[in-house]
């Protein structure tokens, strides 16, 4: 029996049951959940970096976004509040659309 020891999507247990396979799992406490979401974010980011097609890249970006949504309640916030912070930062400092790559800035 393969051992995974990783955070999985909420419907994975039901999908496994549908295949008539046995499994073991536990429900994580909030602190453990946050640790595992951070670990999963790294895993999914790596998969995004290794994507070789637009389709694969979009799949991995969707996974990253889902993990971000999942961690928000652990920080006492919502998607809407996150979006407000994103927009404020966008207005104050801009986005990343232009591809500017800073090399150096003269010291005072």
TrEMBL record:
Coiled coil regions, renumbered to chain: 31-58
Annotated CDD domains: NTP-PPase_COG4997
Keywords assigned: Coiled coil, Hydrolase
InterPro entries: MSMEG_1276-like_NTP-PPase_dom, PRib-ATP_PPHydrolase-like
Top-level taxon of the source organism: Bacteria
GO MF term (any one): hydrolase activity
Residues annotated as transmembrane: none
Name of the protein in its database record: Phosphoribosyl-ATP pyrophosphohydrolase
